[in-house]
Write a structure and sequence with these properties.
It comes from Microvenator marinus. One of its GO terms (biological process) is methylation. This protein is of the alpha/beta class. It folds into five domains: about 1-45, no CATH class; about 210-390, no CATH class; about 395-570, no CATH class; about 600-725 and about 735-745, Vaccinia Virus protein VP39 (Rossmann fold, 3-Layer(aba) Sandwich), CATH 3.40.50; about 760-890, no CATH class. Strands 5, 6, 7, 8, 11, 15, 16 and 18 form an eight-stranded mixed beta sheet that branches. Strands 1-2-4-3 form a four-stranded mixed beta sheet.
C-alpha cells in the first residue's frame, strides 16, 4: 500500500502536514482535503456532546453523521462508534473514514474482482463485512451475501453456541458477538495493526511487548512475500461462522455434518462441501491449506490450557505432510522444510489474531511463547517420521506401565493437566495443593483410566465452563465425561450455567452441580459415566452429538429450577424472613459446604469480620515479648494474622480453622498477597494433634468463643447433646492451655454480656419491629423478652437488647446465621472468674486496660435505625459490644 490509510488520517487529523496528500484525497474520496477536514471536524464535534444527553447525541448522529458518509449506513456507524477501537474523537474519525474508503473500493469492484479484492488486506475484509452490521440494505451487503450466504450466520447470536469468553464492546441494537469478534477486533485491530505496523492499533494496553510485536510484523511480511497472507485472510473469514446461524441455516448445515458442536471441524466440512473458497480463485493447494487452518485453529490454545492432547493434531500433521511438497514446488522454495515453516507461520498468525481478539490483554508475551512452543513442536513432528510422532506421544504418556515410577509419573502428569484446566483460578490465588490432594486420592485403576482416555480426548470449553467448580467436582465431572471414550467432549452447555457474571443464580447452580457430584463415586463415574437415575436436583447428561463427539449438559429438575429462581430473589430481599428461608432451603438441599458457608454472602461476611482493624490490634499489646509461635484459632478473614505478621516479623504465625471454606479463602489470599503466615484445617478441641504440648507462646481467640458456645453440641452424658453450653468453651480453652508454654498467654476478644437492666428500643426503620418479632421467634440462645409499648417501641432488658441490636446491625442478609449465635456469653468479671477456675492453679488473669468497650461500628450502624432508653426513658448509650480478656500460664519456678 503506497499510502497507508492510517498514515493519511493521522496527517489529516493534525499529526503532520496534509497538504501533500490533496491529490490522493481527491482521487480516493472525490473530496478536497479541506472538505474532508471539515467533515472530520463535524465528526469530532459529535464526541463533545455530554455523555448524559442521549437525545442530543442521537440527533447529532442522525443529522451530522448521516450526511458525512455515502457508504457507511447509520446503524453500522453506531456499531463502530461503540467499539473499543474508538477511544477518542480522532480515532473514531480515522476508523470511520478508512472503513468508508474500504467499502467504496469494494463497491466499485466488478463482480469478478470483488472476491479477489476482499482478500487484499484486513481493511478490505472489514470493508466487506461492516455492512453486515446494518439492517439497512446496501449493494455491497447484498453482493457479499450473494457470494457467501453462510456469512449471514455471523449476524445471528446463538446463546447455545457462542461462549461468554468473547468480549462484548459497546451497546448495539442487537448483539452480534461473532461479527464483532471477527470484524472489530480480529481484523480491524489485530490483523490490521500487524499489516500497517502500528502497535497502538493492535492493542490498547501493553500486554504484548514491542519486541514481540515487531517479530509478528516481520513474520507477516514473510507471508506477504509468498502470497500466503491471502490464505490466512480467507481462513479468518470462515473460522467461527458455524457457531452462529439461524435455525434454518443450522438445519441445512446438519445435512452436511450432523453434529455442529465441534465448530472448527464443522466449519471446514461445510466450507469444503459448499465450495465457499472457489470465488477467491486460490490455487488448489492454497484452498486445502485454508481448510486445514480452519479445521485446526484454536487447538494450540486448547493444548496450552490442558484441553487438547497432541493426538488432536493428527489431521493437521497429515495435511502438512501432503501440502508441504506441493507448496514448496508452487512457490519455488529452496526446500520442503521451508514450506513446513511457512505453513506453521500461517497457523501461528491465525491463532494469534483470533486469540488476541477474544478480549483485550489476553495475548501476552508469555502466552505467545506457549503458542510458539506448541507450533514449533508440531512443525518438528510434521517434518519427521510417524515413528518420531509416536515417540513424542510416548513421552507425553510418561514412563512404561511396568516401571516402578509409573504411578508417580501418572499423578504428576494428571496434576499438571488439572492445573492448566484451572489456570485462571490458580492465578487468582487458589492453592495448587487442592488439585494435588484430589489427584493423590485417586485409586491406581481410576488414575490409569483417566490418564489413558485424557491423552486421546479433546476437551472443548472445559476451562471456561468448569473452573468455578471445586477441583474435586471438576475431576469427577471429567471422569464421568471420559467414560464415553469419545475423542471430543464439549462443555459449552455448562458455560452459561456456571458463569458467575452472566446470571445471579450461577453461584447456586455451581452448588447444585457440586452437590450432585459430591454424592457420586469417581471410580463408578470413569467406568459407567453419569447416573441416569433422576435426582431431586436434576442431573448431568452426556448427549452424543455424533460418532466422535459428546455434549455435557446440566438438566435441572422442576425443584431445582424453582430453587434457582427463588434463591437469588430472596437474596436481594431486605426482610429477614426471606433470608431465614433462603438458608433453610440451602440446608435442605445440601448446598452449603459446612456450617460457616453463606454461599453468596460469604465474601461480604469475611469483609465485615476484617473491619475494625485498629480495634483488633489492641489484642497484640498482650502477646508475650519475643514470641516464637503464635496461633490464632478461627482466623476468619485473616486480618489478625496480617497484624501478627506485621508486628512480629521473626515469629511463626499460624491460623487453624475447622471451616473448609474459610481455610480455602485464606490460602487463596496468602498466595495472591505473598503472606508468610500459614493456615491449617483442623479441630481446635484437639490442638495437640497440630502443635506440640507447651509449644505456643500465644493463642488468640478473636470473636470465636461465642460461636463455640452457640454452635458446638456438648455431650451432656444423658444420651443428648446440647448447644449453648459453657462446657464447650471450657473444653476449647483447656485444649489451648495444654499447648501453651509456661509464660505464654491466651488472648480473647469477644462479645460480652451487659448488666441485667431494663431498656426501651424505639425503632426509626419501618422494618425494625418486624425484625425484632422475628428475632424473638427464632433466636436459639434463650427466650428473648419483649413487651410492646406502642407500634415502634419495645421494652426489654439490656442482655436481650444487646443480642438483638448486634444482630440487627448485620442486616437481613445475615439474620439466619446471626440468630443462631448468642454474642454475649457472660458478664466480664464472671467470665474472668469462670476461665481461671476452668484452667486451674497454673492460670492467672492478666489486667487489661478498658477490658470491655463499645465498638464504633455498632454506633454508626444503628444510629439511623433505633434510639435506646433506660427504664426512665432517658437516652442511654449502647451496651459494650466487646471485651478483651487475657490469661497467662504461670512460669515454672
Amino acid at each position: 500500500m503506497p499510502h497507508s490509510e492510517y498514515t493519511i488520517f493521522s496527517a489529516l487529523l493534525g499529526q503532520s502536514d496534509p497538504s501533500t496528500l490533496q491529490d490522493w484525497f481527491e482521487a480516493s474520496f472525490g473530496l478536497s482535503s479541506n472538505e474532508l477536514a471539515r467533515r472530520v471536524h463535524a465528526l469530532e464535534w459529535t464526541f463533545k456532546c455530554p455523555p448524559y444527553d442521549q437525545e442530543l447525541q442521537t440527533w447529532v448522529k442522525a443529522a451530522e453523521l448521516k450526511g458525512l458518509f455515502s457508504y457507511l449506513p447509520l446503524d453500522a456507524i453506531e456499531q463502530i462508534l461503540a467499539s473499543s477501537a474508538c477511544i477518542d474523537a480522532k480515532s473514531a474519525a480515522a476508523e470511520l473514514f478508512w472503513r468508508e474508503h474500504a467499502i467504496k473500493q469494494l463497491e466499485l469492484a466488478s463482480e469478478k474482482d470483488l472476491p479477489k479484492h476482499l482478500l487484499d488486506s484486513a481493511e478490505s475484509m472489514v470493508g466487506a463485512l461492516t455492512p453486515l452490521f446494518s439492517t439497512q440494505g446496501s449493494a455491497l451487503r447484498a453482493r457479499v451475501l450473494s457470494l457467501w450466504p453462510d456469512l449471514g450466520a455471523l449476524c445471528h447470536h446463538n446463546p447455545d453456541t457462542i461462549t461468554t469468553e468473547h468480549e462484548i464492546i459497546g451497546q448495539t441494537k442487537e448483539s452480534m458477538p461473532l461479527l464483532e469478534h471477527l470484524v472489530d477486533r480480529c481484523l480491524a485491530r489485530k490483523l490490521r495493526g500487524l499489516e500497517i505496523d502500528d502497535i497502538g492499533v493492535f492493542q490498547r494496553d501493553h500486554s504484548l511487548s514491542p519486541d514481540a510485536f515487531r517479530a509478528e510484523v516481520d513474520g507477516l511480511a514473510t507471508l506477504f512475500e509468498h502470497g500466503l497472507d491471502r490464505v490466512c485472510r480467507a481462513a479468518f473469514l470462515f473460522l467461527d461462522f458455524t457457531k452462529g446461524g439461524s435455525a434454518e441455516m443450522r438445519a441445512h448445515w446438519k445435512t452436511i455434518r450432523p453434529d455442529l458442536s465441534i465448530h472448527n471441524e464443522a466449519s471446514a466440512d461445510i466450507v469444503e462441501a459448499k465450495g465457499l473458497l472457489k470465488p477467491f480463485g486460490l490455487p488448489e493447494c492454497f484452498e486445502r491449506l485454508v481448510l486445514a487452518l480452519i479445521r485446526s485453529h484454536g487447538l494450540v490454545g486448547q493444548c496450552t490450557r490442558g484441553e487438547a492432547p497432541l493426538t488432536a493434531f493428527d489431521s493437521w500433521i497429515e495435511d502438512c505432510r501432503s501440502l508441504a511438497p506441493e507448496i514448496s514446488k508452487m512457490l519455488a522454495l529452496d526446500s520442503t522444510e521451508r514450506a513446513y515453516d511457512l505453513i506453521h507461520k500461517c497457523l501461528h498468525l491465525v491463532n494469534l489474531c483470533d486469540t488476541a481478539g477474544v478480549r483485550e490483554g489476553l495475548m501476552t508475551d508469555s502466552l505467545r511463547f506457549e503458542f510458539m512452543a506448541v507450533e514449533s513442536l508440531l512443525n518438528q513432528i510434521a517434518k519427521g517420521t510417524q515413528a518420531a510422532f509416536d515417540e513424542l506421544l510416548k513421552c507425553e504418556a510418561s514412563v512404561p506401565r511396568e516401571d516402578p515410577l509409573w504411578e508417580n509419573a501418572q499423578r504428576r502428569w494428571l496434576f499438571d493437566r488439572i492445573c492448566r484446566l484451572r489456570a485462571g483460578r490458580i492465578r487468582a490465588g487458589e492453592p495448587e495443593e487442592e488439585a494435588l490432594r484430589v489427584v493423590k486420592g485417586l485409586s491406581v485403576e481410576t488414575l490409569e483410566a483417566i490418564c489413558e482416555r485424557l491423552r486421546q480426548t479433546s476437551l472443548w470449553y472445559m476451562e471456561v465452563a468448569t473452573s468455578s467448580l471445586s477441583p474435586e467436582s471438576q475431576i469427577k465431572l471429567l471422569a464421568g465425561a471420559l467414560a464415553s471414550r469419545l475423542p471430543n467432549i464439549t462443555f459449552i452447555g455448562l458455560v452459561r450455567d456456571l458463569d458467575r457474571a452472566s446470571d445471579p443464580s450461577s453461584p447456586y447452580r455451581v452448588r447444585l452441580i457440586e452437590t450432585l457430584l459430591r454424592q457420586a463415586d469417581i471410580d463408578q463415574l470413569i467406568q459407567h459415566g453419569f447416573d441416569s437415575k433422576e435426582h431431586a436436583l436434576g442431573g448431568l447428561k452426556a448427549q452424543i452429538g455424533s460418532k466422535d463427539a459428546l455434549n455435557i449438559k446440566f438438566e435441572a429438575s422442576e425443584e431445582a429450577r424453582a430453587l434457582l429462581t427463588l434463591l437469588p430473589l430472596y437474596e436481594r430481599k431486605s426482610n429477614a424472613a426471606f433470608h431465614a428461608t433462603l438458608k433453610g432451603l440451602c440446608d435442605l438441599y445440601g448446598l452449603r459446604k459446612d456450617e460457616f458457608d453463606r454461599i453468596s454472602n460469604e465474601n461480604t461476611y469475611l469483609l465485615h469480620m476484617n473491619s475494625a482493624r485498629s480495634d483488633k490490634e489492641r489484642m497484640l499489646d498482650y502477646v508475650p515479648v519475643n514470641p516464637g509461635l503464635i496461633v490464632e484459632v478461627g482466623p476468619g478473614g485473616g486480618v489478625v494474622l496480617d497484624l501478627l505478621e506485621a508486628r512480629f516479623p521473626s515469629s511463626r504465625i499460624a491460623g487453624i480453622d475447622i471451616s473448609k471454606l474459610v481455610v480455602e479463602s485464606l490460602q487463596s489470599r496468602r498466595e495472591i498477597e505473598g503472606h508468610r503466615w500459614e493456615v491449617l484445617e483442623g479441630d481446635a478441641f484437639h490442638l495437640e494433634t497440630h502443635f506440640n504440648q507447651s509449644s505456643c507462646d500465644a493463642l488468640i481467640f478473636c470473636s470465636l468463643l461465642h460461636e463455640i458456645y452457640s454452635y458446638i453440641e456438648y455431650d451432656t452424658g444423658k444420651n443428648s447433646k446440647e448447644k449453648f453450653r459453657l462446657e464447650s468453651v471450657r473444653d476449647l480453652l483447656r485444649s489451648a492451655f495444654r499447648v501453651l508454654k509456661p509464660g505464654g498467654r491466651i488472648i480473647i476478644r469477644d462479645g460480652i454480656m451487659p448488666p441485667d437492666e431494663p431498656r426501651y428500643i424505639r425503632f426509626k426503620d419501618p422494618d425494625g419491629p418486624e425484625f425484632f418479632r422475628l428475632f424473638q421467634e427464632q433466636f436459639e440462645g434463650r427466650k428473648i423478652f419483649g413487651e410492646w409499648i406502642d407500634e415502634v417501641t419495645v421494652r426489654t432488658f439490656a442482655p436481650d437488647a444487646m443480642e438483638f441490636l448486634y444482630c440487627y446491625t448485620w442486616g437481613p442478609e445475615s439474620f439466619p446465621y446471626e440468630v443462631r449465635e448468642q454474642y454475649g456469653v457472660l458478664p466480664y468479671e464472671e467470665y474472668q472468674e469462670a476461665i481461671v477456675a476452668w484452667l486451674g492453679a497454673e492460670c492467672r488473669s492478666v489486667e487489661v486496660t478498658d477490658g470491655s468497650y463499645l465498638q464504633e461500628g455498632y454506633i454508626q450502624g444503628l444510629k439511623d435505625k433505633i434510639d435506646l432508653f433506660d427504664e426512665h426513658m432517658h437516652p442511654v448509650s449502647l451496651p459494650d459490644s466487646n471485651a478483651i480478656l487475657v490469661f497467662e500460664k504461670k512460669a515454672l519456678l
